[in-house]
Amino acid sequence: MTCTVSASGLSLSFGRTRALDDVSLRLTPGVTGLLGPNGAGKTTLLRVLATAVPPDRGAFTVLGHDPGSARGRQEVRRRLGYLPQTPGFHPGFTAFEFVDYVAVLKEMTGRAARHREVRRVLEEVGLGEVRGRKIKKLSGGMRQRVALAAALVGDPRFLVLDEPTVGLDPEQRMRFRELIAGAGETRTVLLSTHQTEDVAMLCHRVVVMAAGAVRFDGTPAELTARAAGRVWSSRTRDAGAKAGWRTGDGSFRNVGDPPEGAEPVEPTLEDGYLLVLDGAGVDAEVAA
Ligand SMILES: Nc1ncnc2c1ncn2[C@@H]1O[C@H](COP(=O)(O)OP(=O)(O)OP(=O)(O)O)[C@@H](O)[C@H]1O
C-alpha cells in the first residue's frame, strides 16, 4: 500500500528529557492509533510530524516531501491537517470565522472558493447550522468539531489528531469516532489517544510509545493477542498479577503471568497494551 509518511530515527530532547528517542515509523492510508502513558512522547511526535518543531536527529517525508527544507516544509503543510491538543481558538470568532482564518493560513486565497470549502467542512462535521455562532457559546464537543473542521479544510491527505476525544461525553465521542473513521477512508490519519476503545473501534493499526520510544507497532488484533492466556479472574487479588482490579461482580480481573489452574478470561486490547507497557519498564497500573 502507498506509504504516506515515512520517518526514520526521529529524536528530540528538551534539556535532559528525551521526548523522542530514535522513532521510526511508516504510515499508510487509514487510521493509526498512537497510545502511551502521560509523557510518552506522543504529542512531541505529532508536533514533529506536523512540522511545528524540527527533530534534533532523524528525518521524515510526507507524500515524498521532506520538511528539512523551507520549500519541502511548505509542501508538507499544504498536505497536512493538524488538530493540536489545545486548539488556539479566538473565543470571539464564530465557527465560520475561525475555520476561514485557518483556510487563509493554508494559502486558500480565492475568497468565494475558500468560503465554499469552509461551509463544506463545517457541514461535514455537522456544524452547518451553527456556523455563525461564537465559539465561546458552543459546547466542548462542538468546539472539538470546529477544530476538526479546521484540520479538514483544504482536504489534506495527512491528518494529525492529538487526543480529539478527550473530555467528550460518550455520545459525542461516538459521533467523533464516526467522523474520524470517515476521514480515514480516504486519508492517512494519526490519532493520539488515551482511549483504548478508540483504537479497538477505529484503527487499522496501533503504535504504542513509552519513554520516547516505539514499544509496539502492529494491528489492534496483534496487540490484543499479546494478552492471550495472560488474563484471568480470581476471587481475591492475585499477588502474581502485573495489574489487577476488582470488577463489578466482585471478582478480580488479573493481567500478567497466571498461576496454575487459573480461570482464563478473553483478553482486550487494553490488556495487551498494559502488558506491552509492563515490558517497557512502565508501571502498568499507573499507566492505565
Ligand atoms: N516544550 C517542552 N519543553 C520541555 N519539555 C517538554 C516539552 N514538550 C514536551 N516535554 C517533555 O517531553 C516528554 C514527552 O512529552 P509529550 O507531551 O510528548 O508526551 P505525551 O505522550 O503527549 O503525554 P500526554 O499523554 O500527557 O499528553 C515529557 O517528559 C514532557 O514533559
Automatic annotation (TrEMBL):
Keywords: ATP-binding, Nucleotide-binding, Transport. Residues 239-265 are annotated as: Disordered. SMART domains: AAA. Residues 5-236 form the ABC transporter domain. One of its GO terms (molecular function) is ATP binding. InterPro entries: AAA+_ATPase, ABC_transporter-like_ATP-bd, ABC_transporter-like_CS, P-loop_NTPase. Belongs to the ABC transporter superfamily. This is ABC transporter ATP-binding protein. It comes from Streptomyces vinaceusdrappus.
